[in-house]
Design goal:
The protein is of the alpha/beta class and 158 residues long. The protein folds into 2 domains: 52 residues, no CATH class; 64 residues, Transcription elongation factor, GreA/GreB, C-terminal domain (Chitinase A, domain 3), CATH 3.10.50.30. It is 29% helix and 25% strand. It has 3 helices and 7 strands. The strands form 2 sheets. The chain has a 5-stranded mixed beta sheet. A two-stranded parallel sheet has the order 1-2. The protein is elongated. The termini are far apart.
Length: 158
Amino acid sequence: MSVAFRRDGDEEHLEPKFEIPIPSGPNLVTARGKALIDEQVRTFAAKLDASADEPSREAAKRDLRYWQTRQITSEVMPQPTGDKVEFGTTVSFTLHGKQRTLSIVGSDEADGASGLLSFTAPLARALMNGEPGDLLPFGGQDDAIEVLAVTVLADVPV
C-alpha cells in the first residue's frame, strides 16, 4: 500500500491548537479592565483545577497563559481629567451627522455592543485629544467628527 493512503492514527487529523494571539503594543487598562483581567485569571485557574480530561485541561492552560500574560503586562492608566478625549473617557460626538457615545478603554475590555471601544481602534485614535466643539477628520473626510461632550468613564462594577 502506498504511504499516501496510510494513516498512523487519528491524532494527525486533529486541528492544531494555537496560542491565543496577544494584541501588539502596550496593554493599557482602566481600573475596571484590570479587575476583569484578574477575574479571568481566577476563572481559568479554577477551570484548570476542575478539569478531568486532557483536552479540557489543555484549553484551560492555554486560556490561563493568555490571561496571566495580560495580567503581568497590564498598565493601569491614571484617571483622566475629562477636559479632552483620553484613555478612560466617555465621549459624545456626531459622526457624519449621527450622534454616538463611546468609552475608550483597553483592548481586553473593549465591547462594541456595550459602547466600549479599544484605544487602538481607528475611531478612538481619531477622537484622541479632541475637546468639546472640535471638528476632527476621519475616514479621509475633514470635519467628519464633531466632539459634543467628554466625561470621565464611570467605574462600572465588574
